Amino acid sequence: MKKSDILIIGGGPAAMVAAGTARQYYPQKSVTVLKKTKDSLVPCGIPYIFGPMLESVEDDMIPCGAMAEKMGTELLHEEAVDIDYDTKTVTCQSGNRYGYDKLILATGSIPKTPENIANHDAEGVFFVPKDPDYIRQMHAKVAKMSRVVVVGTGFIGIEVANELRDAGKEITLVGSRLLKHSFDPEVSAYMEKIVAAKGITHISDRRTCEILLDDAGRARGVKFDDGSEVACDGVILATGYRPNTELAKKTGLSLRQGDTIYVDEYMRTTKPDVFAVGDCAEKRHFITKRTIPVMLASTATAEARIAVANLYSINLVKSFSGTIAIFSTVIGDTCFGSAGIIEEDAKKQKIDFISTVVKVADKHPAKLPNTHEQALKLIASRATGQVIGAQVVGGIDIGEMINILGTVIENRMTIFDLLGLQVATHPLLTSAPTTYPIIMAAQNLATRFIGEN
Ligand SMILES: Cc1cc2nc3c(=O)[nH]c(=O)nc-3n(C[C@H](O)[C@H](O)[C@H](O)COP(=O)(O)OP(=O)(O)OC[C@H]3O[C@@H](n4cnc5c(N)ncnc54)[C@H](O)[C@@H]3O)c2cc1C
């Protein structure tokens, strides 16, 4: 039996970052990754396989083999099927067994099966898994279709719908308010306008209950709960993901709400020397501390770095204090970013907050070419001024602006910290120093604490 100092089960972003970080911090230790599938896709790039941006599935591959070689880790094509925590041994489908000193589970997530939609497993109905073989076949079939129904209005459904529309297909998008977990209603309404202008039909007032089939058993339409129907050539179900925790469950690790693996702030599970990171691990919200089903590569890789830093001793005192659910997306040429809590959830959680919206041009003067309007909604605790949420809409630079705001939230900064923020501004790169949106939003909120209002 082969033994590794650090054994990782996975092969997605969490596993690869854990492996690379382990090699950096502990160059004397052997690191082995057991990875079920031979190839891996850049998961966040999958939607772009379906549009004009990537030419084929091959353009979205992660060169895992080359990465492992460069990092000096061993990458084995093996599926782990059992773990004996007493003897510290992992058994694989092949019958091979691997010993470990420290074990990191990074088994990720897989699409949820929507049991409430009849015929969800029929020919011409697809999920969006991170499996290259599946996506290869799906891509070839969807390319021949003219009318596609996409069910699901989270970011994956919207991104896939957007790309297929750009590829010239007739798209019906089905699901409630767009990106309702990450943005407040007014931002969804703005998104709605962009989606409509692109020629995507969004059905939000009906639930999909059945995939209608032709005589050969292939999808020919979708039926809704009010009896109405939409004809199509294929259906894509972007109806969420569930943690891939069968192995953890089978081997007796403690699971939490939603079947995620229980982890503490250092990503330790209930078994000694066993860590869990990424989509398979429990996520607690940074602000509310409640368990939430956030699955993001950025969170997964942050957790991998925290786990590895604390494998042998508690090194990172600033541990993983919860997910700030930070993410960004693009529809057409408009970018959207969100971090922390949205107003709607803050109300539900009975958080006493104040909020403001500022809108400025992202260049100065605004007559410069390619100027985009930038809108920022900032949410802060009414009592302390601590920033707890941010939503931004604008041009390409909001991709980094939301990251600044994420840092603000994660470091528990207040609006008062932001009032004197020193930022670099340039006519072609940013909004004006006189109207920089993060500072302006903080100043708007500060009027409730400072001065005569
Ligand atoms: C279409 C799409 C777009 C996305 N876009 C974004 C985005 O823009 N930004 C963002 O932050 N996130 C995005 N995500 C989410 C992101 O992809 C996931 O959060 C991320 O992949 C999680 O990484 P992970 O390593 O935890 O799990 P996964 O990526 O799910 O990887 C798990 C790996 O473990 C392997 N495995 C499982 N069980 C075993 C076993 N028993 N033995 C061996 N190997 C095993 C699997 O084969 C897989 O390789 C997107 C996801 C999808 C599907």
Which features characterize this protein?
single chain, 453 residues, alpha/beta, seven-stranded mixed sheet, five-stranded parallel sheet, 24% helix, globular, binds flavin-adenine dinucleotide
Write the layout of secondary structure elements.
Layout: E1 2-10, H1 13-25, E2 31-35, E3 40-41, E4 61-62, H2 64-71, E5 74-77, E6 80-84, E7 89-92, E8 97-106, E9 109-111, E10 125-126, H3 132-143, E11 147-151, H4 155-166, E12 170-174, H5 185-197, E13 201-203, E14 208-213, E15 219-224, E16 229-231, E17 234-237, E18 241-243, H6 246-250, E19 274-276, H7 297-309, E20 327-331, E21 334-340, H8 343-348, E22 353-361, E23 373-381, E24 387-394, H9 398-410, H10 415-419, H11 437-446
Parallel strand pairs: 1-2, 1-8, 2-5, 8-19, 10-17, 11-12, 11-17, 12-13
Antiparallel strand pairs: 3-4, 6-7, 7-8, 9-18, 14-15, 15-16, 20-21, 21-24, 22-23, 23-24
The chain binds flavin-adenine dinucleotide.
The site of flavin-adenine dinucleotide has 35 residues, from strand 1, helix 1, strand 2 and helix 7.
